[in-house]
Amino acid sequence: MPHTHDKASQYVQIPRGAAPGEIVAKLNGEGVLQSSLPVQIYLRVLGKTANLKSGEYRFASPITPLGVIKKLEEGEERSTKLTIIEGWTRWEIAKEIAEKFPPPNTENQKQDEKAVFELLNDTSQIKDFDPTAKNLEGYLYPDTYNLPREFTPKQVVKALVDRFKKEWKPEFTDQARALGRTPQDIITMASMIETESKLPDERRIVASVIYNRLRRNIPLGLDVTNIYAAKLAGIWDGTLHKSDLERESPYNSRKVAGLPPTPVASPSATSIYAALNPVQTDYIFYVRNVEKNDGSHNFYNNGADFERGKAAYQRWLEEERKLKAAQNQNSN
Q1: E strands within the chain?
Q2: CB contact at 8 A, 55 and 76
Q3: Collapsing DSSP states into helix, strand and coil, what is residue 85?
Q4: What pLDDT was estimated at residue 90?
Q5: Top-tier CATH class for 12-74
Q6: How far is it, in rounded angstroms, from Cα 327 to Cα 332?
Q7: Sign of the CA dihedral with 74 first, then 75, 81, and 85 last
Q8: What pLDDT, on a 0 to 100 scale, did the predictor assign at position 329?
Q9: CA contacts within 13 A on the Cβ side of 200
Q10: pLDDT exceeds 70 at position 248
């Protein structure tokens, strides 16, 4: 018969190594089981004593003894949700990990972030994929993870890298080579595509622009690389300044042709796919589509059309700034 108890909203911890008799006795003591003896006999007769798993459980109320046993056989751990956003860099990722899985023996949030950030310089997990990697930028796969709450930051980082390796299929390496690129090149391109376009259907076109400019040895001119350079310099304040565009850095894609030295963000599967499967175009420019204002872009194969599109974008941007300033003034 189902038994009603008052622990339905609480977690009951079953420690590792606990004997079946100890588990049953604990649940009886917590009130989840009305009686321990019938359950112990049932487990012994059916030989199920070895199937009970440790973990942290929430037992519905009412619940039958068989329902309790089934839950113990399936196993359950209280987990912590960790969300890594597509396009995040090591800085954002370190901050999020430190917040959800704070390292031991640190005194404040800043120290936590610094300790986690140092872990992201350990490339031992990715050396088989990228022997030249200096850190894990680009290889911390963005997704929502449910991880055991007792995980250390190091275990969390391993989970993110393991997920990246799972997402990178063996055939992707062959595709990269067919394009004349290394897997590292593909991840670097994907990391730029991720932040340049938020529309999955458009990313293969953005990829075509990158390939076309690389073939012509035209600097990519992508703001995301200048933002990354500013982060490396420790001076990124959320706004791209003229000084950021003029900075001497191998990541300044306005000055330096070719790909940046490393990925500049964590790319999603759709951006990796786009980098591996660019559409065939003659586009070498693009600018935000201000008429649609949905995050999409207009693409161009010549400078004259691009300059007209750019001028329209700059006019729209100025109007947006005026509107925002007026709204702020009215709110004050």
Answers
A1: 12-14, 55-57, 79-83, 144-148, 285-288, 297-300
A2: yes
A3: coil
A4: 97
A5: alpha beta
A6: 9
A7: negative
A8: 78
A9: 6
A10: yes
